[in-house]
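re the bet — no i am not wrong, look at it urself. input seq straight from the record:
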Amino acid sequence: MTITQEAGFCIDLHCHSTASDGALSPEDLVRRAGERGVTHLALTDHDTIAGLKEAGTAAQATGISLVAGTELSCLWRSHTIHIVGLDFDVADKDLNAALERQNDNRWRRARTIAEKLSKLRIDHLVEKATGKAGGDVPGRPHFARVLVEEGAVKDSAQAFKRYLGSGKAGDVKGFWPSLEEVVQWVTRAGGIAVLAHPRKYKLTATKLRALTGDFRQAGGRAIEVSTSGQSSGDLGFLAELCRRENLLASQGSDFHFPGAPWCELGSIMKMPDGLEPVWHHFRQPVGIHPAV
């Protein structure tokens, strides 16, 4: 389990439900988080806050403190980057309008993915992927599940390796707003913009430093120092990057489905000492806020 900066807390600020590309409903996800000992949870579904109401009801029943969250896609120098928004006003009209535009972008992207995979000759691919997504906008994991069921590949790993992974036909980019615009959506809604899982973009150290600098200049305030799938070397590098750019430190499992111990709810490597946790700067700070 994660060991946070304050004893007695287990804080997970990045996870997904069926409101986007997760396997569990918001209610079931919150229940599982409680069983895993999580005390503070941010549900960060992709480009939506549709699951927050259900998650909030479940959180009250389980005693978990729920933090408003979402994970927003954007573009930086032609790279698709994800920004986690935390602790914002869920009723903010501008943010909700932006999320509607993102939803439209996701549908356009889904249809384009299907077009790119037309050579597989799978009838009604978008509709079938939408079914896998529970009627919501399908993402690449949902398309992968259809490809498996249709016999185009043997498993999801092969689907990504051949058709959906980085650089493959189904890896569709170009539908997202700029990093600067997305950061402003979050900050204008009173939230904190967090650079999500920086090492997953497979950028060189030089490019990642440039990304982090541009993110901070745009108004971003935190980066995920500790998240799933990282090595101890990644952790140290991101901690130093956090210090260098004078950013707050966040953490999250990036949970999508049960059965994957490397991205289970609450299972996060301990952040290095000497970093300022993002949760100290929530509107209702978690733990003892340091004296200013």
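see?? Residues 27 and 57 are 8 Å apart (CA to CA). told u. also The first strand starts at residue 11 and ends at 12. so pay up
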